[in-house]
Amino acid sequence: MLNIALSSLDSKSESVVQKALNNLMKGRTTLVIAHRLSTVVDADKIIFIEKGNLTGSGTHDELLQTHDMYREFATQQLKIKEGAL
């Protein structure tokens, strides 16, 4: 669990850590718990939990199309333009 440790990093340092983690995760099943969508956007499967309830699952693109709260988070965090959905 690196979420709190990563939250204090600047964007450049976070990118370096994310690249290292991506290399470590290749070819492995990995459970990632994240508040920042940039951490999981390339995952094979994302599980979205709201108030303790599983409310959606799928790839980033699938959730953008089908899950209102995920789409709202993605729009805010990833600077996705409304027309790109």
UniProtKB/TrEMBL annotation:
Residues of the signal peptide: none
GO molecular function, a single term: ABC-type oligopeptide transporter activity
GO biological process: oligopeptide export from mitochondrion
SUPFAM superfamilies: P-loop containing nucleoside triphosphate hydrolases
An annotated GO cellular component: endomembrane system
Gene3D superfamilies xref list: P-loop containing nucleotide triphosphate hydrolases (3.40.50.300)
Domain of life: Bacteria
Entry protein name: Multidrug transporter
Lineage: Bacteria, Bacillati, Bacillota, Bacilli, Bacillales
